[in-house]
Design the sequence.
């Protein structure tokens, strides 16, 4: 044990300690620098802390990724986003690699801004796999086609009500905001059995704050999107906790199987683990928030841009109209759509698929590197994050001939090559809501196209591309009712 008796001794000791600390720090810095530079993918880390996030948002994901694949590598390149070192995997081989290594070298991950906005504080630092996998299998089962058939009449009924109230009496409709209202109303009804208009409006208002802050720079200061997103998340979770607590009480008092399985939330409340333990209200809330986000933002984006292309391309519109009118004419007055009707909408679904190729609702998906691994001759270090993205294949002429031409026939027969068309991801974590989205979009499309001809008010309206594509003016369309 050291005995420092004099001030001089203390001073010399502190000086020596500082020198040792500096030497050690420099050694560790150069060691880690050399290690990080040894064989990692080419690219740039950008500015300290901020990384390349500003460039990413300024250019938009599509241009950002296009520029860097051209400059650095067609296989994988490095960047820094959301304060994290990140390897961006490119092309169908990169997509397939990520999908195939979900449980080996990679784990689910979302930026801090997403986790802070969506999850309760105690879950924010937990591995995302623990949060999302808790009921992932159950959610996937609940969202299977056979389980969704019963909801098609509900979707059709709500679409008719929406068209009557938001479209029928208007010469011009801004599609993006009204489609967001429809998809959120429908999500509240089908996911949670919520029909109280005031509660739905309140939830939607809170959710607007959440989505604005989801992929923001994590600066928690009053007025920033990140700060608003966190506040919005608290408000949404508080409302959901009340709904879930009340629903659990209702279900314990009413043993009717119809009541117990009338919507997704009721079915999630019945899920137990291997020990027969029910999930907590907070765990269920985390999952419901995720489902609401997916069904609200991404589906309304898809609906909006399907209608955009139908308004721009008369020959595509005419084919969709012909298909939908054949179905409409087969129905009696007031008869709702069925599963069999939706299965006949083959050309319409090809149009939706081509829209999702042109303007995919989401950028892609993130993963956490849990073990060092090699890819395309490079080392991807543990602790880095990875990103697979639609923007390395969807508009690439290697995989889609004449990619700037809108051509629904690409999806006839076998369709695109594996892992080139990935708006819903792939592998074990493919979006479980894919079938829900398909039904929702097609039912809505049927109710619009069979009633109106569509024309863009501003043919030069721009699309702003961040994590979600947004029409700058909300996509105002002029409606002409069919005779």
Sequence:
């Amino acid at each position: 044990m050291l005995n420092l008796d004099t001030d001089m001794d203390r001073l010399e000791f502190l000086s020596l300690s500082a020198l040792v600390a500096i030497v050690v720090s420099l050694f560790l810095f150069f060691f880690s620098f050399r290690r990080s530079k040894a064989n990692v993918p080419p690219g740039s880390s950008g500015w300290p802390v901020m990384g390349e996030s500003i460039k990413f948002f300024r250019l938009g994901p599509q241009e950002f990724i296009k520029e860097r694949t051209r400059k650095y590598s067609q296989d994988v390149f490095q960047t820094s986003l959301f304060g994290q070192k990140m390897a961006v995997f490119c092309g169908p081989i990169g997509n397939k690699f990520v999908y195939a290594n979900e449980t080996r070298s990679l784990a689910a991950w979302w930026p801090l801004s997403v986790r802070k906005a969506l999850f309760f504080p105690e879950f924010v630092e937990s591995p995302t796999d623990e949060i999302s996998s808790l009921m992932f299998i159950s959610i996937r089962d609940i969202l299977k086609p056979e389980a969704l058939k019963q909801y098609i009449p509900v979707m059709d009924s709500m679409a008719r009500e929406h068209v009557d109230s938001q479209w029928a009496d208007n010469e011009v409709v801004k599609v993006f905001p009204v489609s967001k209202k429809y998809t959120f109303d429908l999500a509240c009804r089908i996911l949670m059995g919520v029909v109280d208009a005031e509660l739905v409006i309140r939830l939607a208002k809170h959710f607007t704050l959440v989505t604005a802050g989801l992929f923001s720079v994590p600066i928690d200061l009053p007025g920033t999107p990140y700060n608003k997103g966190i506040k919005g998340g608290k408000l949404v979770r508080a409302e959901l906790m009340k709904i879930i607590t009340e629903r659990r009480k209702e279900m314990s008092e009413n043993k009717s199987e119809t009541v117990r399985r009338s919507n997704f939330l009721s079915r999630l409340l019945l899920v137990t683990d291997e020990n027969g333990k029910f999930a907590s209200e907070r765990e269920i809330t985390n999952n419901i928030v995720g489902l609401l986000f997916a069904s609200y933002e991404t589906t309304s984006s898809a609906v909006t841009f399907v209608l955009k292309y139908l308004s721009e391309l008369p020959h595509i519109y005419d084919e969709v109209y012909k298909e939908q009118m054949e179905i409409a004419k087969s129905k009696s007055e007031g008869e709702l759509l069925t599963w069999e009707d939706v299965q006949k909408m083959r050309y319409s679904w090809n149009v939706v698929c081509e829209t999702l190729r042109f303007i995919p609702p989401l950028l892609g998906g993130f993963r956490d590197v849990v073990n060092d691994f090699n890819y395309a001759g490079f080392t991807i270090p543990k602790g880095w994050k990875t990103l697979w993205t639609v923007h390395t294949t969807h508009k690439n002429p290697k995989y889609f001939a004449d990619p700037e031409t809108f051509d629904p026939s690409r999806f006839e027969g076998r369709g695109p090559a594996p892992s080139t068309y990935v708006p819903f991801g792939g592998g074990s974590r493919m979006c479980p809501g894919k079938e829900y989205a398909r039904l929702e979009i097609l039912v809505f499309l049927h109710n619009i196209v069979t009633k109106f001809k569509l024309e863009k008010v501003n043919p030069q309206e721009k699309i702003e591309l961040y994590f979600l594509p947004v029409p700058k003016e909300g996509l105002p369309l002029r409606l002409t009712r069919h005779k």
